[in-house]
Design goal:
The chain has about 240 residues and is mainly α. The chain has 2 domains: about 5-50; about 80-210. It is built from 5 helices and no strands. It has helices spanning about 5-10, 15-50, 80-135, 140-205, 230-244. Helix 3 (about 80-135) runs antiparallel to helix 4 (about 140-205).
Length: about 240
């Protein structure tokens, strides 16, 4: 409380209750300001943590600037490395698929042979019961067996046709899978071109002087916007290297 406020209180110009209410409001306002400052500080810390770049990322790389940068050269982003994995995994999975298809095809062929044997048996039975039915028309069992064998023969022919259709579909799948090998060859051709270009660029930028023996670059050139001005020692060292 200031001296003026104390004099006014003694003179009856200020009510003590009003003064307490004003002090309480000031205390609440101060607490509110502190809470706001604390929230802003926490938000700033979180933003700073989110802006911390990955150790493998280039300088200045972050999620906000990712669209300005190429991806870091990690094992997950190396193009030839990824394409090699694709061709290897594709070939392995294709081989597994071919094995499964071959097993299914062999099963279908075996079932076709069994059904064909049943068809031959039904044909023989039909010929026999037709002969017996002609010689002994009064025997009803021959007529019944003849009808049953004809019905079984029709069902067996339907089964054989279904198996043959499935076998043809399996062959079509195997023909389609041949394109996977063509795709693998195309990817391998792209890999070879990329590797040839990489070797060519390395040869193109190759120098006769080792990097350790090269003159160090100037830290500051007239017109630069940064403040990394070369020191006197740096200038003298650079001149000494030119003198050699």
């Amino acid at each position: 409380m200031t001296q003026e406020e104390l004099d006014a209180l003694m003179g009856g110009e200020i009510d003590l209750d009003d003064l307490e209410d004003d002090a309480l409001e000031e205390e609440n306002d101060s607490a509110t300001d502190e809470q706001v400052d604390l929230a802003e500080s926490i938000a700033q810390d979180v933003a700073t943590q989110n802006d911390v770049p990955d150790k493998d990322a280039p300088a200045g790389y972050s999620e906000e600037t990712a669209h300005h940068w190429p991806l870091p050269a990690t094992d997950e982003n190396k193009m030839v490395h990824q394409l090699d994995d694709v061709t290897k995994e594709s070939e392995e999975k294709a081989s597994e698929i071919f094995d499964i298809i071959e097993s299914i095809s062999n099963d279908l062929m075996e079932k076709e042979e069994n059904v064909q044997k049943s068809i031959d048996t039904f044909n023989a039975n039909i010929a026999l019961f037709e002969t017996l039915s002609k010689k002994f028309p009064e025997v009803e069992a021959f007529q019944t067996s003849l009808a049953q064998n004809k019905e079984a023969l029709e069902a067996a022919n339907g089964t054989l046709e279904s198996l043959q259709t499935s076998g043809d579909a399996i062959m079509s799948v195997m023909d389609i899978m041949q394109y996977q090998d063509i795709h693998r060859q195309k990817i391998e051709r792209v890999i070879n071109v990329m590797r040839a270009l990489s070797k060519y660029m390395n040869t193109l930028f190759e120098g006769k002087i080792d990097d350790e023996k090269r003159v160090s670059s100037a830290q500051h050139i007239a017109g630069d916007t940064h403040n990394d001005v070369a020191s006197t020692d740096d200038i003298e060292a650079l001149l000494a290297q030119f003198g050699q």
